[in-house]
Amino acid sequence: MKTIAISNFKGGVGKTTTAGHLAYLLSFKNKVCLIDADSQGNSSQWLLTMPFDYELADVLSGTATPGEALQLVKDNFYIIPTRGKDGNLRNYGEIKLNEEPFIFDDLRQAIEGLNFDFLIYDMSPALGRVERSVLSAVDEVITPITPEMFSISGILTFTHELNKLKKNLRLNITHEKIICNNVNMSFKIHKDALDALEGNDYDVYVIPQDSEIKKAQEVNKTVFEFNAAAKSIKYYETLAGAYGN
């Protein structure tokens, strides 16, 4: 099972959008679990329309099994949700996680035991206990950004902290993919931002500005379900193609 974290310390760069759309596409050929590891619960609010009994914090605390918490999004695509309102993930991270530093390793093994091919984490814009614990249990980190210089310079900070974590915990995590979201090549600032990425040791995937993405999310759909002619679709397909889709 391949385990991927969609992570960046900066908010508003498209982590949730990237995680949800990548998981959706991969589910056409694989069994995929998306875990909403952001206490805001944005992935859960976007992809689920019905109430759910259990959230990620319940699984981590032992109140529920991963199988009990899984919610079906579509064929082969499941999510372990987090409640944005009245959720307990943040409290778990502050109070209990220090006693259970390998809990996300245990969760990974449990998800793999349910015959999933991909496990994808939608992360919060932070590097607290929950985020560090998740990162210690993944194979790969993908970093979404937006085409602005502050966002790009933030990659250096993120990479520095990730490398420290890898060294301290002796982790073997790959960090090769950058997703540049909301790009409009008619804007000089966007062109300059992409130029600044050249020469770095990253595979850069560009997702263009596409109003259909936001419209789709407003009605709890992916852009693929909302408008099959949306201009961003082929770019997401290129990203999924890196995993054999």
How would you sum up this structure, described in words?
The protein contains twelve helices and eight strands. It is α/β, with parallel strands linked by helices. Helices cover about 45% and strands about 20% of the residues. Helix 9 links the parallel strand 7 and strand 8 (about 205-210). It starts with a strand and ends with a helix. The protein is globular. An eight-stranded mixed sheet has the order 3-4-2-5-1-6-7-8, with helices on both faces.
Give average pLDDT, whole number: 94
- Category from helices, strands and their pairing: alpha/beta
- Percent of residues in beta strands: 15-25%
Please provide the count of β strands.
8
Report strand order across the widest sheet. Answer: 3-4-2-5-1-6-7-8
Features:
245 residues, alpha/beta, 19% strand, globular
Secondary structure topology:
Layout (H helix, E strand, L loop, with lengths): L1 E5 L8 H12 L5 E6 L4 H6 L8 H6 L4 H4 L1 E4 L2 E4 L8 H7 L7 H11 L4 E6 L5 H7 L4 E6 L3 H21 L4 E10 L4 H10 L5 E6 L2 H8 L4 H4 L6 H9 L4
Helix pairs in contact: 1-12
Structure described in brief:
This protein has 245 residues and is an alpha/beta fold. 43% of the residues lie in helices and 19% in strands.
